[in-house]
Amino acid sequence: MSRLWHVLAPRPPAALLWDMDGTLVDTEPYWIEAEHNLVEEAGGRWSEQLARQLVGQDLYVSAEFIRANSPITLGPEEIIDALLATVVARVERHIPWRPGARELLLAGSAAGIRMALVTMSWTRLVEPVMDALPAGTFDAVASGDVVAHGKPHPEPYLHAARELSVDPADCLAIEDSPTGVRSATSAGVPTLAVRHIVDIPAMPGALPLRSLSDVAVEDLGALRRRAAESFVTV
């Protein structure tokens, strides 16, 4: 029976491609706080509804959105620098790992599954998160200041797969926002859609999950297969 199970069991993903904010670490509240502070210091008002529209977005898109919906006249890079300063300071004091995420990341790495971080945050924020993990946990990083087109464009995930020399279809992405899920699935990557701050509509190639807390490394092959099957069933 054991030998038969091993024959029938789906093979593990060629790589796990992780979103960061809201998926690996619970930094979305940090970003929302930074947006509130920045806009209110300029004499404007920021709402949770506006903040939710920026979850998972490229930072340049976020900066232009803030300019269009507030009295802020700073340039996009100045806005990004101000937001990053606040969020990085918070992360350097405390990294709020999402339930089950760090455990799955480290267990997968220990099992020999290759890992990539695919995030719209810039290297300045990626570094303190990477520093809190064992050296070599991630084999590749596709950050917002590296790629030419941010999520929901497929480039971030295609870039990560290319860096790892793997077929995107053989990988499994983990995301928490509609923007991120669209980026991954449009690159042909089967995706776990783990809802956090915002709802994620059903999308081809995405398998909804409530949490990573109960996901074990041994489950990843079957989860990747189920997500891949949904490319043609949704």
**SSE pattern, N- to C-terminal:** HEHHHHHEHEHEHEEH
Overall strand count: 6
Helix count equals 10
Mean pLDDT: 93
Which CATH class of the largest domain is shown? Alpha Beta
Which outline best applies?
A: globular
- Architecture per CATH nomenclature, i.e. the level-2 architecture of the largest domain: 3-Layer(aba) Sandwich
Helix/sheet category: alpha/beta
Strand content: 5-15%
In order across it, which strands form the biggest sheet?
Answer: 3-2-1-4-5-6
What is the CATH topology assignment of the largest domain? Rossmann fold
Q: In which range does the helix fraction lie?
A: 40-55%
CATH superfamily of the largest domain: HAD superfamily/HAD-like
Q: Which residues form runs of ≥5 with pLDDT under 50?
A: 1-7
